[in-house]
Every structure is written in structure tokens, then in C-alpha cells.
Amino acid sequence: MIAQTPKPPYFAVIFTSVRTQGDQGYNAMSDEMVESVQNQPGFLGFESARNDIGITVSYWKDLESIQNWKKNERHTVARNNGREKWYAQFRVRICKVEREYGWEK
Amino acid sequence: MIAQTPKPPYFAVIFTSVRTQGDQGYNAMSDEMVESVQNQPGFLGFESARNDIGITVSYWKDLESIQNWKKNERHTVARNNGREKWYAQFRVRICKVEREYGWEK
Question: Which of A2, A58, B14, B34 could lock onto B93 through a cystine, CB 3.0 to 4.6 A?
């Protein structure tokens, strides 16, 4: 569930959102995006959690890979639906991961 | 709930974790940390969500501010308890936020 990412530097997209009420096709599209992004060149992994707000962080090899995923046709449909139906509010932050460490019991 | 952050560049610490079972003082310390970090120089805001995994992203003016918070005495106690009691696994990523945009209905 915690993404296994390579040695930095690499990139992260932090997507923080507040959902509208009801599903309205959100879960089906979410599943499709999770499956589709795995085949995207430069994709390194993602982490996601939601209760009051949702946070999804996707990890990428470089900025070009992030741009290419943004141009993906179905992802564009998903983003348009996001604004029309699924989200009351969101924020996107593009970051360069400079340092990383982990710990396991 | 979504952090109101300034124009980039600034920094983000992505903390992704898997909890152990039971509270064991976690929630009280979590509340204390949330209150304490607000007074920390260079702190810009944070976002947090948990279901299967927890993701907490804190935002900072610069790397020095992140280091200073790491040295905070109670935060050090919290981190030690984290390893001893509260977390089965975690990962920390220090990032430079390069670009940001938001949207609201």
C-alpha cells in the first residue's frame, strides 16, 4: 500500500480533494484510472487515502511523464467529470522528491 | 481542510504510514502535534487522511524549517513512540513544490 519508489530524485503529484455527495460513476472511473496509470511510461507508484478529504499522491520518473499522463484521453475525460460532478474542491501540487527514507517494524 | 499554501516554491513532507492495532496514546499525541506545529516557524499548513494507509502532507517555507521541527523535543518523543508503538511501517519523502493549482466549484 506504501509505494516502493526508487532513489530520489523523482517527482510527485499531490492531489488533495473534497468530494461531492454520491457516487455518480466516480468509483468505476477511479478503478479504471488506477488500472490504466500502471501502464503509463514513467509511472512509479501511488498512495491514496480518504476520510474528510482525499489525498492521492502519484510518483513519476520526470515531469514529461506527468505531462503525458495528463494528455491521456480517458484521464482527460476523468478530469472533466471531476470538475462537473465528483469534486467540490481540489488542489494539485507538482513536486520534486529530493530525499526519502522508510522504516518497517 | 485543504491547505492554503503560498505561491511555489515551498516544501512538502509526505508522511505515509500503516498503523499498528489500538490507540496506545496515538490520538492524544496526534492532537498535541497538530496544535504544536501551528506555532512552528516556517509551517505553512497540512493535509491528512487515513483509511487503509494514512497520508499526512505538511507544507513548509524551506528545508531549515523542516529540520527545526524535527529537532522539536515533543516531536522527537512522538517519533520515538511512532517506531515503538504506533506504526507498523512508514515512509517520509521531502519534496520541493514547484507548481500548484486549485479549483473550487
Answer: B14
How many CB pairs lie under 8 A apart between chains A and B? 136
Rounded to an integer, what is the distance from CA B86 to the centroid of its chain? 15
The tens digit of pLDDT for each residue in B62-94 reads: 999 999 999 999 999 999 999 999 999 999 999
Kindly determine whether residue B91 and residue A102, on different chains, have CB atoms separated by under 8 Å: yes
Q: How far is CA B33 from CA A13, B41, B55, in A?
A: 25, 14, 15
Single-letter amino acid, residue A15:
F
Query: Could you tell me which residues of chain A have a Cβ less than 8 Å from any Cβ in chain B?
Result: 1-3, 5, 8, 12, 14, 16-18, 20, 47-55, 57, 83, 87-105
